[in-house]
Write a structure and sequence with these properties.
It is globular and about 65 Å long. The protein is α/β, with parallel strands linked by helices. The protein is built from 13 helices and 9 strands. α5 crosses α6 (173-185). The relative contact order is 0.13. The protein has a 4-stranded parallel beta sheet. The longest helix is centred in the C-terminal third of the chain and has 18 residues, at 394-411. It folds into 2 domains: 6-226 and 391-410, Rossmann fold, CATH 3.40.50.2000; 253-384, Rossmann fold (3-Layer(aba) Sandwich), CATH 3.40.50.2000. InterPro entries: UDP_glucos_trans. Keywords: Glycosyltransferase, Transferase.
Length: 412
Amino acid sequence: MKTGPPHVAMLATPGIGHVIPLAELAKRLASRPGATATLITFASTASATQRAFLASLPPSVASLPLPPVDVSDLPHDAAIETLMSEECARSLPALTGILSELRESTRLVAFVTDSCLFTPINLHAVSLLLHLPELAASVAGEFRDLAEPVRLSGCVPIPGPDIVSPLQDRSNPSYMVMVHLAMRHREADAILVNSFDAVEPEVAKVLRQPEPGRRRPPVYPIGPLIVQQSNGTTTNTVANGGVPPHSLAPRAACLEWLDHQPARSVIFVSFGSGGAIPKEEMHELALGLELSRQRFLWVVRSPSYEGTLSDNYYDAESKKDPFSPGAVVGTADTGWNSTLESLVHGVPMVAWPLFAEQRQNAVMLAEGAGAANRRYAVAELQKAAAEGLREGGAATMALDEVVQKWEADAAN
């Protein structure tokens, strides 16, 4: 058996919202004495933001890009889940080569791949995936047409139209992509989830219990994993609806402007790095914010011109300035990552879901966690998140248990 410090290889699904939490997990693992990690990424979403982020990783975390693959033969309107699945499949030879090299050069103890062994979404979404094969077989029509919500043990009832978007059309190839992914979840050695008990207590309790009559991998809530600077603040770049001077860099301008605002007086508007609202809705939102007379910061992304709410996912750089001149454009994380950042910093939310699992997240936050528009609930969740990440906290102990298991398996 190869000697040396333990090494973990990680594969991040395309998209900065997948890369960031997996990189944070790599940093947390590599903070252990002598441990190292390699983060493997895809070329398709290698934006300037992603490149800068990867360049900022500590020396103990290496990053390796997979070579680009051609997916031009897929339909132009293929769902992002289909594109991601095909890109992953066509990258397997290159991935196999990288893993073989790592086995020769390091003491490789684990391979973590999202969205299977590690999932950057929440426990409600994991529960849905684990039950999806049976749901797909028992629901005759489309989820959006269900008269009653989907009820899973420990979960908030999810109305059919709020089930994750790729499951809303059985005729779309992305539907079977999701069902296949769900079946593969059952084969994992463990599932690490970027969530924490306090935000989803009932489903966390259920997923800890053995499932009679069938195998289910152990589920470890190890979150929240969000980008942190040395002073503990998040490093998202944000953009303001025209308030900071346009001559300054977006991030510096926003922070300078924020420093002069009263505490808890600014509304932050973000639809994620992949989300795109229709142009008409974007202008209505801008007008509403202006008429509200409230201070706001807005991550301005290109609008959807064809009604596809995930228009920006595979176009990581903004295509057009929707408010030219005068808008400062920046980026933020997608979906669940932004939610976790809000919880960590004790900020209540108003949910405006667009695609992927965002509608399901909105139901869970509003009906379950009470994090949407309830400042007291968010303050309590903020405390719980901090407690879990401390030495001896729930998230830290869960990750320690996983690492000990990897070490034991590698020794055998």
